[in-house]
Amino acid sequence: MKQEVLLGDEAVALGAIHAGLTGGYSYPGTPASEIMEYLVRASAKEKSFVASWSVNEKVAYEEALGVSYAGKRALVSMKHVGLNVAADPFMNSAITGANGGLVVIVADDPGMHSSQNEQDSRFYAEFAKIFCFEPSNHQEAYDMTRDAFDLSEHLGVPVMVRMVTRLSHSRSRVQPRSPREQNTLHFGKDTDWTLLPVHARRRFKHLVDKQKDLIMVSNRSEFNSLRINPKNTTLGIIASGIAANYVIENYIEGQEYPSFLKVTTYPIPEELVKGLVDHVDTALIVEDGYPFIEKNISGVFGIDGKNIFGKLTGHLPSTGELSPEIVRQGLGLEALPKRGIADFPLAARPPQLCQGCSHADTYRALNEALESYPESNVFSDIGCYTLGALPPYNAIQSCVCMGASVSMAKGGAEAGVYPSIAVIGDSTFAHSGLTPLLAAVAANTNMTVFILDNSTVAMTGGQPTFLSGEKLVKVIEGMGIAKEHIRSILPLPKNHDENIHIIKQELTYKGLSVVISARECVQQARKKKRSRT
Amino acid sequence: MKQDIILAGVGGQGILSIAFVIDNAALKQGFNFKQAEVHGMAQRGGAVQSHLRISDKPVFSDLIPKGVADMILSVEPMECLRYLDFLSPEGIVITSRSPFVNIPDYPDIEKVMDAIQTVANRVIVDSDKQAKEAGSPKSQNMVMLGAASPHLILEETNLTEFIRILFAPRGDKMVEMNLKAFDLGRTAAIKC
Ligand SMILES: Cc1ncc(C[n+]2csc(CCOP(=O)(O)OP(=O)(O)O)c2C)c(N)n1
Ligand code: SF4
Q: Is A356 exposed, middle or buried (0-12, 13-18, 19+ CB in 10 A)?
């Protein structure tokens, strides 16, 4: 087959299609979104498999689980924090096991390029006791995803592929192989999939017993490589995923290599690790993310007579993303000569709300309405509108996780905050805002919820949203909020005064109000116009 | 043979279009390459950069190590300074002199230009003027690609081929404007 130029994310998607994918599901999130975007484009062309954006990651996971139950191959992809949302089906799917191959792609974001934290999904794989791949390049992203489906069926467990931002969003050549057919329908065994305690206990023991098989597969995986340098017994290096590239990068010019183990599969390939550690006095562990391998190797007491160095020992930084030069320092190599910009006063150029963005008009009106309430608090959520935290708006005081604005505003109001305000986008509302709003309706909490309906998932590049326009209004009405306290505003500069007036009315109301501020995202509108011409 | 390039600019200036053209030209010439791009947050008027590595040997790191880049190609003058520590001592800076001011504290442009002058190897192009001359103020990215082209290990015809492919969906006029922008940039750079 012809070579292709693909993003790391796209290589994953193509690997899944060629593995005989029947259903792919996802909720948008940087840096994972491009996996589903590729699948959606491909399925529109080929019409042989389902590729579908879901309402949130938990739903996406369960949709994939249903495909697996039916004996066919399923992929679910998400950003790292998405797995927190999907953690319930994820953990339990390790107990039911996979029937058709079930592959979960999680894209971590070391360095927090566009995330609230830099949690490392390998811990989740270990927690659930499933197999995990960590590709180091595009070809591996393709090959491992393909293999992950076979392995999932062979071992009978879901398999994770851990991506990181740098690989997800880097482009390179990939050599695909000929595609495989999809599976035929064959149901899972009901006693395996019905997690009553009586079945779950048996299934969990089965999972625990299977761990030795997982370790064996990891030890023998062709994606791992151990190169012992018999002449050097001082230093050895264990590097995982893309961190392995940073190590190799620093030894390219014919230098003498220390012994080197590249790890790309979990559970940790114990035999290979032992092979390296036995050979050297000091092992440096290089991994992008948390010190997962390092912690596993050194345990609480370390290994007698050996130095295990890495993030825990301060030889590499414990936070942020690795880079070739950070790894170079960790390897103890001399820094490369580079030029500085002396003391030139560079100005930062942070991301901003676009010119004409509806969120800006909402914040201007809200800020002005709140001028007479110095004790107010605006709990925000995650989306483009989170940029309202920055000047010139300085309009929000919190952003924690999807949906938290509504629940935190309720908690805040109950603690005495007044006015207690939630600001949430339409997609985030559908993802995790509906359920906390139901709780606020039941308590008739004295708070005001702003739903910023721009009819898209703008932050992550304009994916489709589930609850917008008329439908959104109807759902809010159906939740039991007093009709006169469901207000709609059109966020435009010409409506500024009128909008302030409406907002003020709802702030003075002692009870729950919802203000729907609806205007299409300008980027999205532009894209639509362009595709029409 | 290898070339490590930092592409720099501001979100919306079309850095990724430059990358598309270079990537595909590199592929056509049989090079290995990796190109790390920025998605998400940084796109809304924020600083944007991309690491582009072309080589006849395997490319390992997706990121260019500091001190190793052969070229900084920037569509905005202050943005090229942001990445100077990536440039190797012999590296070249190819930058626009047209500032993109969307922040209140943009430094004095004269000082920015002075700082750029400290790099021995440099090509400075008035991309705003050239782009307007080409008929589209938005084609500054192709002006800068043109300015870089005499210094790339890629053939001009391969670059222009992928400019055609990139802009073809938006009509012949777009293709012609962007090819003209490329040419004007190339001529301006050769004169430099
Ligand atoms: C659990 C989780 N999933 C996904 C994301 C990524 N993400 C950030 S904001 C957002 C949605 C934004 O959409 P919306 O609320 O409609 O606001 P908009 O950006 O359109 O203004 C997503 C998907 C995340 N941070 N956490
Ligand atoms: S992408 Fe849309 S929602 Fe986001 S800042 Fe721009 S206009 Fe606003």
A: middle
